[in-house]
Amino acid sequence: MKALLTLAATVLLPLPLLAAPTKPEIERPAATAQAIGAVHTVRQIPEACTRIEGRFTDTAAQPYDMQLVRTSAQCQPRALFLDASKVNPSEASGWKLNEVVRVPSAACSSQQALIEVWRKPAGQQVALDGQGQNRVYLEDAKAEAAAGRLAALPAYSAKLAMQGAACR
């Protein structure tokens, strides 16, 4: 019995050390199923003045199309939105998995779009005031800029993948 327990411990001990899927910072249930051609908002990122829009297409080569849309011409971004193919976001390079959005297809129940939203912190801790708000005062910001001490901006990126079997 003792030898069996030792063997089981030896075999099972390394299992938690295997690469487990990264847990996102935000967890939400899957979105409602979307029809082919229906444009829908996948996620809004107000800090980057960006909205991720998606739609299922009727083509086998590219079953889902994802676009980045600026939310407003007057919006002043406090974060960057970077192309995932250029920055290749991963935890090893300092990115954090912010959210995984699952969008099922209404026309093909076995298929869903999987959008990973990644966030790269700016590196500095934001100072909050007594009300828990991050306040930026114009004169202080001008003085920091004149001294060449502008803070790095946080960044976001999104990866698209398809899950499940195609219906055609």
Morphology:
elongated
Amino-to-carboxy terminus distance: 54 Å
Mean pLDDT across every amino acid position: 85
Name the beta content range.
25-35%
Cα-atom radius of gyration = 22 Å
Spans of at least 5 consecutive residues whose pLDDT stays below 50 are 2-19
Indicate the percent of residues in helices: 10-25%
Structural class: alpha+beta
Largest sheet: 4 strands, mixed
Total DSSP E strands = 7
Q: What strand line-up does the widest sheet have?
A: 4-7-6-5
Succession of helices and strands = HEEEEHEEHE
The number of distinct helices, counting runs of at least 4 residues, comes to 3
Protein architecture, described:
The protein is 14% helix and 29% strand. It is an alpha+beta fold and 168 residues long. It has a four-stranded mixed beta sheet with strand order 4-7-6-5. The longest helix is centred in the N-terminal third of the chain and has 11 residues, at 2-12. The N and C termini lie far apart (54 Å).
List keywords for this structure.
168 residues, alpha+beta, 4-stranded mixed β-sheet, 3-stranded antiparallel β-sheet, 3 helices, 7 strands, elongated, disordered N terminus
Short description:
The chain is of the alpha+beta class. It is built from 3 helices and 7 strands.
Write the layout of secondary structure elements.
Blueprint: H1 2-12, E1 40-45, E2 50-56, E3 64-70, E4 80-81, H2 84-87, E5 96-104, E6 112-120, H3 138-146, E7 155-163
Parallel strand pairs: 4-7
Antiparallel strand pairs: 1-2, 2-3, 5-6, 6-7
